[in-house]
Amino acid sequence: MNEPRPFSPELTEKMNFFRGKAEKIKLGQISFDSKLILAPMAGICNLPYRVLMEDLGAGGTVSELISCHGINYGNARTLDMLKIHKRERNVGIQLFGEDPESMAKAAIVAESYGPKFLDINMGCPVAKVVTKGGGSALMKEVSALAPLFEGMRKNMKVPLSIKIRTGWDANSRNAAEILKIARESGIEWVAIHGRTRTQQYTGFADWDFIESLNDVKQLPLIGNGDLHHPFGVSERLKSSKCDALMIARGALRNPFIFLESLDPEYEQKKKSVFLGKDYWEVVQRLYDYCSEHFPEERTILVQLRKLVVWFAAGFPHAAAFRSQIFTCQDLADSMKLSEDYFLSLGTSQKSINYDEVFMSSGHG
Ligand SMILES: Cc1cc2nc3c(=O)[nH]c(=O)nc-3n(C[C@H](O)[C@H](O)[C@H](O)COP(=O)(O)O)c2cc1C
């Protein structure tokens, strides 16, 4: 594996300013480089994106959800999703499934790829997953949880965590009960997205509910939901009793969110130090990781432009750039379009309307 091209001294210096403010933490036996962790996202948190986010200050990362059955069938595409980059230091692999035996078997295979921890998806609201009993449906069958957790842990060497929602629906917000079972079954920590399954991605994450769990938790808790911009994250870092926070969608439009949020004065400054030219360096590094990982040029192009367009969100003329890059079918030309666009931005700041809904579907 090749090293990616280095960041410029100027960008490195800016990043180091924020990095110096990061607080290393331990959740159970596992240490993370900061309290801000990249949440799992299907179709996004693949190897190139995860390693890039760790380079940009994510204290840890979690893979996209990976099917235990796909692993057990030896499906080549599924096994490819288990791969980890040698630069990834704090990465976990998330498994989904419903059957304890299949999950326990898949856990052994997943572990052999070298993650720091394994995680169970207990929050996916998607019908295809829940009708089979996986994802957030696991929250409905609480009596089945201890055997599932213990069955998986029996042959595992790395810690096991879970990612849940507040409950199935407004009448069954049973996260506190699940925390208790988790603690008694040796789960290392629990991450919670502050919505019910029924809510899917509507409304807002209920942070009062998340915070209330800190009074009863007795194991580390990671809060998640609607942490879309650095000042919101920074405020939450100051006020939350959670041991760590997870960020999903916020990292798509601002790849520097893990760093910028560490500055408690960010809100007063109202200005980001990261400019178009810094984004261009990020795009080049993403290109390096994608080219190393994906054998086909078409896959590199698809991955790259999806992320590049999100990175551009809120910058001037982002819509025009988006349509240009989506009509371009050539990888080298797409990189040139990106270079021209991001370098043309000069000192322009992003302007994003965070009240508008952004990506209202996902697997957790
Ligand atoms: C596109 C997308 C894919 C997701 N995939 C997963 C997944 O594979 N596993 C999981 O536990 N959660 C998944 N989620 C949920 C996120 O991890 C997170 O809980 C949710 O988006 C709320 O956090 P946010 O407001 O910071 O985005 C996904 C979310 C999105 C938007």
Topology:
Layout lengths: L8 H11 L5 E3 L2 E3 L3 E3 L8 H9 L4 E8 H5 L3 H6 L9 E6 L3 H12 L5 E6 L4 H4 L14 H10 L5 E8 L7 H10 L5 E7 L10 H7 L7 E4 L5 H10 L4 E4 L2 H4 L3 H4 L5 H4 L6 H18 L3 H16 L5 H10 L3 H14 L20
Parallel strand pairs: 3-4, 3-10, 4-5, 5-6, 6-7, 7-8, 8-9, 9-10
Antiparallel strand pairs: 1-2
Helix pairs in contact: 2-14, 5-7, 14-15, 14-17, 15-17
Bound molecules: flavin mononucleotide.
Flavin mononucleotide binds next to strand 4.
Overview of this protein structure:
With about 375 residues, this protein is an alpha/beta fold. The protein is about 40% helix and about 15% strand. It contains 17 helices and ten strands. The strands form two sheets. It has an eight-stranded parallel β-barrel with strand order 3-4-5-6-7-8-9-10, surrounded by six helices. It has a two-stranded antiparallel sheet with strand order 1-2. α5 packs parallel to α7 and α14 runs antiparallel to α17. Bound molecules: flavin mononucleotide (FMN). The site of flavin mononucleotide has 24 residues, from β4.
